[in-house]
C-alpha cells in the first residue's frame, strides 16, 4: 500500500492506494465510506475489491484520521462535505473510476456530481451499498421504529455545550456494554467482541461531525439543484429488511437524479454499514450478478 497527502482547503488529506492482487489488472475502485467509519472498519471491503483491481480509499473530514471541517472554519454540513469530496476527486489523477459508495457515501457522491458535473468524465459507474438520498429515504420516527427514535435522540449532542457531555459519554469504556444489547440482532459478524471494540474506537472520532451530519441526513430532504440527470449508472445494493431505509421512497428520489438507476438484492439481514466483515463474508452476501458487475 502507498499513500499521498493532499492539501484540500487547508485540510491535510491522506489518500491510500491499495494495489490489486493481480498486477495485470487495470481497474481502479474508489471507496467512499458512510457515517461512523474509518479505514480499519473498511479493511474487509478493501481486501475484497483488491481481488478485482486497485482500491483508492480515504477518511472523510471529521472521520478517521482526517481533521473536521470546523478545523478550517467551515460549517459541518452535508453540502460542505460534498463540496470537499468534489475537490478531492478533481485532484486525483486516476480516471474511469469505479465508485463503491457506502450508505451516506451515495448521497455525497450524488451531490458532488451535481455540484461539479465534469466529474462524470472521471467515473465509470457507481455501486452503492445501502445508500439513502435525503431524509425522505428513512422510515418514520416513532414507537414502531425504536432504533431510529433512539438514534435521533442521541443527535441532540450536536448542540454546544452538550458536545462535551457526548464526548465524555462515548469515551467511556462502558459504552461497550450498550452494544451487547444489539449485537446479536443487528450484526452478522462472527467476531462480536472485535466488532464492539471497533465501535468503541470509532466513537473516539469527532463526535461533532457525526452528530451534526447524522442529524442533517435524518431531517433534511435531498435538494441539491440539478441542471440535468446524472449520466452514470448507479446500482444500489439493498436489503428489504433494512431497519432504517424505506426503499420505495429512496428509489423515487434516486430516479429523479440518475438516468440509469437500479437496485440489486443483498443477502444480509440489516442495514449494510452495520456490518464489519472479512472479504470472504462480504463475498457471500453478493449475488453472482453483482460480482460479475464488479469484475467486468
Question: Any key phrases for this structure?
Answer:
8-stranded mixed β-sheet, globular, Rossmann fold, alpha/beta, 296 residues, 11 helices
Radius of gyration: 18 Å
Strand order of the largest sheet: 1-2-4-3-5-6-7-8
So what's the overall shape? globular
- The DSSP helix count reads 11
| CATH structural architecture | 3-Layer(aba) Sandwich
Number of strands: 8
CATH third-level topology? Rossmann fold
Low-confidence stretches: 160-166, 181-188
Characterization of this structure:
With 296 residues, the chain is of the alpha/beta class. The protein has a single domain (2-139, 222-295), classed as Alpha/Beta hydrolase fold, catalytic domain (Rossmann fold). The protein is 39% helix and 19% strand. It contains 11 helices and 8 strands. The chain has helices spanning 43-50, 78-91, 104-115, 146-154, 162-171, 175-186, 192-202, 207-219, 247-257, 279-284, 288-295, and strands at 2-8, 11-18, 28-32, 54-58, 97-102, 123-129, 230-238, 258-265. An 8-stranded mixed β-sheet has the order 1-2-4-3-5-6-7-8. 34% of the residues are buried. The model is unreliable at 160-166 and 181-188 (pLDDT under 50).
Q: Can you lay out the helices and strands and say which pair or pack?
A:
Layout: E1 2-8, E2 11-18, E3 28-32, H1 43-50, E4 54-58, H2 78-91, E5 97-102, H3 104-115, E6 123-129, H4 146-154, H5 162-171, H6 175-186, H7 192-202, H8 207-219, E7 230-238, H9 247-257, E8 258-265, H10 279-284, H11 288-295
Parallel strand pairs: 3-4, 3-5, 5-6, 6-7, 7-8
Antiparallel strand pairs: 1-2, 2-4
Helix pairs in contact: 2-3, 6-7
